[in-house]
Amino acid sequence: MTRNDILRKHGVIPEKPPSPTPIIEEALTEARRQAHDNRLNDKNLDELNELEDDEDAHFLEQYRKQRMAELATMSRASVFNQVYPLQKPDYSRDVTEASRAAFVLVHLTSSLGTNVESQLLTELWRVLAGKFGDIKFCEMRGDMCIEGYPDKNTPTILIYRDGDIKRQIITLRELAGSNTSTQDLERLLVDVGALKSNDTRLLQSKLRDELSATNGRNGWQDDSE
Fold first, then answer.
1. Which of 3, 25, 35, 77 has an alpha carbon within 20 to 30 A of 89's alpha carbon?
2. Dihedral of CA 122/128/133/135: which sign?
């Protein structure tokens, strides 16, 4: 028994803290398990077919069926696929009531042609509407929706579900201002529950972004040689 062990036994110095090694090993084991479980999430059906030699055939077949069912469900739900202009008399029907079946996002636009953030959000709205057809994207001038609505509050994003406003964002300051991107809005959609974090459309976007970044770096290196 060492001197410190004797001192600890008599309460002179505190007990040694537990070794962090088991906790670290447990965390690493869990990280490896999750990575293994999610290894196929970003694969399309053609890529799954190419993995037949590397993965258990039965598991792959079950996973393929699951993915096909997810794609079929997504296809049936993709009924919007465009930005819908709104009129005040139809607002209750086209937004409030429609939100009982799907998420509805409303962009209250600026009445001025000089509002950069509003112009940017209009463009991003088109991209997202084409990508996520199961979410309804709408647009209306702020002062036509709400009489006297201050232009300084535009663009305003209203997120509806089940007949209620779930989230309101006034200007893009809360996101990234005039640098707001589709990725920022996709994170917002995940935060409010309109999209799942493992949605294949998000994973495919992430993969494309990573490939573009890699190609960009490679191109820069080639030019500098």
1. 77
2. negative
Contact status, residue 139 vs residue 109, Cβ threshold 8 Å: yes
Three-state DSSP class for residue 23 = helix
What angle, rounded to 10 degrees, do the helices at 200-224 and 57-77 form? 100
Torsion angle, alpha carbons of 45, 47, 49, 54, to 10? -140
pLDDT digits over 130-155, tens only? 999 999 999 999 999 999 999 999 99
d(CA 36, CA 57) in angstroms, rounded, equals: 16
Structure tokens at 190: 């995940």
For residue 212, the surrounding DSSP H or E stretch is helix 200-224
Contact predicate 129/141, CB 8 Å = no
